[in-house]
């Protein structure tokens, strides 16, 4: 596929119903052109993961996802030997009277007994989009390890040798910034900080994503979201939440946002009890529809 | 170097002067990125620079200012050379009669005397009593909390070590026994910041002796910095076996005894040059911040995101009526895991205990 400029990428992403601004489009464009990982940082729900999914759809490549968590290790991220099948193979060999250790060893450390975890899978699949999601949740040692893989897109398996990517996968690394990620890793990447979308863009996203949504409703929801984000909540709603909320409203047949419906569906936008209490207590839902 | 490269290198230099970590590798990345973009389009140049030269949201406003200044025809002036004035602010030892009578005869320590001494404020002790406290500090061996390392070792319990089991099966022709393995552990690192400013002078020596005991017990997992108006690494000095020699070496190294405290700036320097990732960060200070408390707040936030635990040791915390009211203390408070006392031997023993079980 020929993507000659960031503007062209905006257009292609739009066709996939993802509205990217100039910054994000330039970031993704450079990531594709330069073969560098894209490091997306920003609050939860601003569309980091969604971008990876959209890029995969756009490039018609499989999305390979590595969800990070504390204690994530090589066996989960890179590869693992298929222990059970190796043992079976040994048993079968024994039954057949094969005792040549050298030959057996060559057989059981064969590629077919290797289970590819996301990083190895991404390196072996061409083309592919690798999503390393929420890197801030993994241990810092894992970053060093990821850096090694992302530097030259090779993985070495002691028993097999080095496995190299013919063409490197498109890599998107996301972080919610619950902790600082090491600078060396960021230096390998293009760094982009994603903000909540501006009001107009959010309205556009709602209309683009939810064809059943009326302009009035989209405007009112976006306005409400803007206000909720300024209310000092534990977890301000991101675009993901506004989309869920609007969808909930549409399911209930709403054409406008009235306080009753808003209160009934608020759980789609706010995920903390304290936040719901704050919003209800402040009467923040009261004047919602007036300014549409 | 062509004109574009020269311009961008100059821009990166401007950014570095403003505190953005736009190093050479990042500048090279920028030039590579510009190969794919239209360099006559200011929007694309802006984004190429922002995507390759910045690394945190904090960099973004600085980047915007520098971009406007540099490409708007106006070069940003480096503000890094601002001089830091050191205000002397003399330590007054509290000689309030009750401990003034320094008899000089180091009476043999009895259990009950030590017990009393353990809870007294070190700033109010006589010379002889203080020496006794220091001797006991030197004996402090609190141990250190352990963290799981990525390495494995063979073990009777733990998860199945498939690789070793298979290897053995290969050698013996059958699975004779299952091998297990588990993660090894290593001591959790500690980074300690000792405030040596004027207001902390009565506690500085005791704190440094405590630091010495920490370094001696876990030399590879302890780092110590003195803070005041300058951030000074003093771990190497504290490695001397003898506390007296170590403290002498420290006193020669630290340039800013009894000045003011600019902890915010110093933490920023520390976090720029180094990091406290996964470590226990301990700050020993009374929080009399002379710098901008807001800056201290943002740096504490950064520190708390990196560190495993952030512990603040405040000598005044030992008093029942203590309230964290100083500007620095208030700015730091939201980011602390613990605020502990640091005025007596007992307080240091507790802190040591905390580091052993954090």
UniProtKB/TrEMBL annotation, chain A:
Task: List residues of the AAA+ ATPase domain.
Answer: 34-209
Q: Which Pfam families match?
A: AAA_5
InterPro entries in the record:
AAA+_ATPase, ATPase_dyneun-rel_AAA, CbbQ/NirQ/NorQ/GpvN, P-loop_NTPase
An example of a GO molecular function for this protein is: ATP hydrolysis activity
Entries under SMART domains matching the protein: AAA
Under PANTHER family, the record lists: MAGNESIUM-CHELATASE SUBUNIT CHLD, MOXR FAMILY PROTEIN
Q: What is this protein called?
A: MoxR family ATPase
What species is this protein from?
Answer: Nonomuraea terrae
List the lineage, top down.
Bacteria, Bacillati, Actinomycetota, Actinomycetes, Streptosporangiales
TrEMBL record, chain B:
Q: What is an example of a Pfam family matching this protein?
A: VWA_CoxE
The record's CDD domains line, in alphabetical order, gives: vWFA
Can you name the source organism? Nonomuraea terrae
Upper lineage is:
Bacteria, Bacillati, Actinomycetota, Actinomycetes, Streptosporangiales
Task: From the Swiss-Prot or TrEMBL record, give the protein name.
Answer: VWA domain-containing protein
